[in-house]
Amino acid sequence: MLNKIIGLFLVLALIPMVLGANENGNIITGGQLIITDMDVKVNSKTDKNMDFGDKIKEEARPGSTVEFSIEVKNNFTNAEDLEIEDIQVTVTIEGIDDDDDLEEEAKEFDLKDGKDEKKKIEFDIPLEVDEDTFDVLIEIEGDDENGTTHEVQFELELEVEKADNEVQFLRNSLTPSEIKCGRNLQLSTSVINTGADDEDDVTLEVTNAELGVSFREVFDLTEDPFDDDSKYRKTFSFTVPSDVGLGIYPITSRVTFDNGADTETETANLVVGTCEALAKEEEEEEEEEVEVVVVTPSVDTTVPTGGVTVDIVTPPVLPTTEEKSLFQSTGFLTALIAGEVLLVIVAILIVVAVMRKRRD
């Protein structure tokens, strides 16, 4: 008898929940916050006008993008004139991430009476995921101006299916991705079997002919996404030749699987820039090699000395480099030459004066 009473009590308790679950969602409290439209897009295909409890038609795959578009309405009338504030929309895909939930929230918002607003929430399905059907729970909650809480829920189902043979990259990155003076690099790459079957003799090749990069690895992958053997990781180290010019060099990573029938490719771009220290050193070397030649024309000075002509010729100036001491500078040489000319002229004048004195 006690069991019958308990059973009847449970049935009576569930009646409001069953009655409350309709196209506007399952009303938990309040009753004036409702869902007026629910669309779900998986990759590029959209399932529109979904009802409570529906299964999403398009199946997701590892790495798929799933977008929930939810239209929420404040069902108060103009006469009631009550705004619902701090409305929060939360979408949860239960147990999809190695038995953990994936949860995302939209930014909080307010709705005046009779108004509606659409919110979009997006998920990326993990690459490490089982083939299964997962429950999706949409929860919407807000408080009106009188302090009453309004909550509505919506439930859907999402199926994840795998291709028989599929391998995807988890990572493919260069460190560093740009080089100037340093020439040592590392390419870290990892792949995962996201298919339903085991993969034998998978080949990973990393190549760039201009840089002389060529690596090849062969391995097996299991189909269990949470098994370490379903993934392969490798870091390749190499040195870029010093004579490689400036530019962008794509380094290609290609994984081949399904007995050689399928491939996936990722590219990491290496930017080779100018090494400023090396460029400065080369510039200084070029400046040291440049010769600066200073040419001073010869000076002929003829002074009459009673029938005797004296020619004064300045000595030639030898070429010199740009790096000169004080005694080799152009200004010093010019002053020295001018002094020598002045001394010669003074000597000539003295000779002339002596000769005239003797004649007298």
Please describe the structure with a list of short key phrases separated by commas or semicolons.
360 residues, alpha+beta, Immunoglobulin-like, 5-stranded mixed beta sheet, 18% helix
Furnish the topology, listing elements before pairings.
Layout: H1 2-20, E1 21-22, E2 25-29, E3 33-42, E4 45-47, E5 65-74, E6 84-97, E7 100-105, E8 109-111, E9 116-124, E10 132-144, E11 149-160, E12 167-175, E13 178-179, E14 184-193, E15 199-208, E16 213-221, E17 231-239, E18 247-257, E19 262-272, H2 276-289, E20 291-292, E21 301-304, E22 309-312, E23 320-321, H3 330-359
Parallel strand pairs: 13-19
Antiparallel strand pairs: 1-2, 2-11, 3-4, 3-5, 5-9, 6-7, 6-8, 6-10, 10-11, 12-14, 14-17, 15-16, 15-18, 18-19, 20-23, 21-22
Description of the molecule:
There is one protein chain. With 360 residues, this protein is α+β, with helices and mostly antiparallel strands. The chain folds into three domains: 2-160, Immunoglobulin-like, CATH 2.60.40; 167-276, Immunoglobulins (Immunoglobulin-like, Sandwich), CATH 2.60.40; 292-359, no CATH class. It has three helices and 23 strands. The chain has helices at 2-20, 276-289, 330-359; strands at 21-22, 25-29, 33-42, 45-47, 65-74, 84-97, 100-105, 109-111, 116-124, 132-144, 149-160, 167-175, 178-179, 184-193, 199-208, 213-221, 231-239, 247-257, 262-272, 291-292, 301-304, 309-312, 320-321. Strands 1, 2, 6, 7, 8, 10 and 11 form a seven-stranded antiparallel beta sheet that branches. A five-stranded mixed beta sheet has the order 13-19-18-15-16, with no helix packed on it. Strand 1 and strand 2 form a beta hairpin. The longest helix is centred in the C-terminal third of the chain and has 30 residues, at 330-359. It is elongated. The model is unreliable at 8-19 and 301-314 (pLDDT under 50).
